[in-house]
Amino acid sequence: MMGRVLVVEDNLPLAEGIAYNLRHEGHEARIAEDGRAGLAEVRAWGPDLVILDLTLPQMDGYQVLQAIRQDRNQVPVIILTARGEEADKVRGFRLDADQYVTKPFGVLELLERVGSLLRRSAARAGVPSAEIRFGDIVVDTAARTVTKGGHACTLSPKAYDLLLALVRRNGSVATRAELLSEVWGYGAFVLSRTVDSHVAELRRKLEDDPAAPRHVVTVWKVGYRFER
After folding, report:
1. Which one is predicted more confidently, 93 or 19?
2. Can you give the residue ranges of every domain in the chain?
């Protein structure tokens, strides 16, 4: 799956190296050397994927990512940074980053992550129009909207994807590792509690009683299951 990829990185030799390899794989690539320019490119060019450094001039990567999501833009974002602390990763994923790559990194690994995210994004875009109903909740998979009792219910992009991943299992149990791989695209050894925090969001916004959930049910020591 080829796509348009924006590299937001102030280390120009590194950015050019990434862009060169992306183009070699058949992607179209552009470079922005600071956060403000990167955000402007996202809004004007509409890339299919963004590779985003955290330590940027003008606006840091967190600010850029937050602005992208506030625009209701669900473009996949790979955070690329020298930071390796867990707190940095947690903050990035809470802002709905899709993947996190720590420098130094292998070019082949990065290219594989880009391809994987582009394929997953294309698959989502190809989902036929359909409504999923349970209780007083309606999920419109074409518009990516959710209503509860006729009122709009705003979910973060990752919480929405997690909901679909659970619903489409038709009552089968999903482990945290499976959900991490399907929704976030990285291994269970990285921040498995990320799933739990997004499950908490689903329950808070969709369940009548989040403390006694009816639809998003915990399967002790295994993971989660969706019930209608």
Report:
1. 19
2. 4-125, 131-226
Q: Beta-carbon neighbour count of residue 82 at 10 Å?
A: 12
Architecture of domain 131-226: Orthogonal Bundle (1.10)
> Model confidence over 27-36: pLDDT tens digits?
889 999 999 9
Query: What are the C-alpha distances in Å from 131 to residues 144, 151, 164?
Result: 10, 15, 11
Q: Which tokens belong to 56?
A: 């940027």
Q: What is the pTM for the complete model shown?
A: 0.59
Q: Which long-range contacts (CB under 8 A, 24 or more apart) does 211-216 make?
A: 214/135, 215/134, 215/135, 215/137, 216/163, 216/166
CATH fold for domain 4-125: Rossmann fold (3.40.50)
Residue 205: both structure tokens together: 């916004």
Each residue's pLDDT tens digit, 64-78: 999 999 988 889 999
Q: Pairing mode, if any, of strands 28-32 and 4-8?
A: parallel
CA 64 to chain centre: 15
Phi, then psi, of 138 in degrees rounded to 5: -125, 125
Q: Phi/psi of residue 159, each to 5°?
A: -65, -40
